[in-house]
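Quick illustration, no need to memorize.
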Amino acid sequence: MELHPLKIHIDEIVPLTDKEFDYILGHFTAVNKRKNQFIIQEDDLVDKEFWVIKGCLKSYFFDNTGKEHILQFAMENWWVTDYDAFTNQKVANISVDCIEDCELLYITYQNREKLKAEMHKMERFWAKKTKLGYIALQNRILSLLKNTAKERHDMFFKKYPELFQRVPKRLIASYLGVSRETLSRLND
């Protein structure tokens, strides 16, 4: 019997029995979204956190001049939401939409809090995922502040080579904080 990909993902941090996993999975809902569909739009109330089974998404916002800024990509086995809005149960400051057709699981804020209260393992799991997310965000900010465009490009390509095949170059340029033309020069 093939293991569910979410069980494999959780087991990397906290091993679960099949019975525990079945209970946890019962708190998630499966959803399919098509390319360019939103899962979160700016000003929506955010009560869901999404886990990517298949596909690729982007979280982003537009500044006052209309320029798009990519905050995060999310592909298989990654979590995505507007974490400020989700955690504080308020409206989104960012949008999240699908770059590709996506198969997702989501958990509501209420179900996540319920699982954390009922199962120490899940409290540990989300605490570890939160720490890892914070570390990734810190490293991204440091990279934007101290590395050249070329260094950011090379680090991104080394860490996520598959994204260069899946994500349009204009989105990668936005993520790296460079123009599309600069990205073309960096790829040479």
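The first helix runs from residue 5 to 11.
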